[in-house]
Amino acid sequence: MPSFEQEEITMTMIYITHKEATVKAGISAMLAANCDLPLVSLDQSQLSCSARGTLITDYDHGMQIAGKRRAACDQALKIIVVTNRTREWDIRNAVDGGIHGILTQDCDAGELAEAILQLQSEALFLSRCISGRARAAMRREKLTSREHQVLHSLGKGLCNKSIARTLGIAEVTVKIHLGNLMIKLGASTRTQAIVIANVLGLLEFDPEMVNGSHDGSTRWMTSREKAAGENLRMAGYFNDIPSPA
């Protein structure tokens, strides 16, 4: 197991800004016990735009900082997110968005150390438990922006005519986009498309409607979405879906 005493680390600072207080405290305690590098635990708003070293944070803040750094062509800060948002689409968006490391919230000090050390010379670190999911995510063809819109309308229980009216496009165009997104998701029916999209992280449902934990990333259903979700559950489509990691 890597340790900070066994390897030479060239960076000078580790910043910890996780939005969940218990996770932030746990990370700080693990690193303080295993690391002799300078640690700074601070509120997210206190992070300097010129900070250099490694940032350990939550998914949303990491994506925000990564976007700003990428726009400024600034790679002086390695960004590691510690999160339970590890479905395929979450991983794909993080990697595409400039995140350097993804760890699950049950990671230990050894994995934290390994991530920090590896990112000194490599571009990406993923928890071993999500590496397979990450490979699948990178192989899967991404949906277009219009296909995303059609999918989200589908998740609200809208028919093709209503989707066309909502998006301001022809109904035949909706059918084309729907067919394309179903091929990309590997779905043979509209219901399967909704279920698969939820598992992959493309749609967010009330955790009471879909198996999985509410980690702050899941929004509550609208009344129309609740009705659609209840119909799916009664049909048994959620019975064998594994909970997101």
Automatic annotation (TrEMBL):
GO BP field: regulation of DNA-templated transcription
Ranges where the HTH luxR-type domain occurs: 136-201
Record protein name field: HTH luxR-type domain-containing protein
Keywords on record: DNA-binding, Transcription, Transcription regulation
Source species: Pseudoduganella dura
Keyword DNA-binding: yes
CDD domains in the cross-refs: LuxR_C_like
Any one GO molecular-function label of the UniProt entry: DNA binding
Highest taxon of source: Bacteria
InterPro entries assigned to the protein according to its UniProt record, in alphabetical order: CheY-like_superfamily (IPR011006), Sig_transdc_resp-reg_C-effctor (IPR016032), Tscrpt_reg_LuxR_C (IPR000792)
PANTHER family, per the entry: DNA-BINDING TRANSCRIPTIONAL ACTIVATOR DEVR_DOSR (PTHR44688)
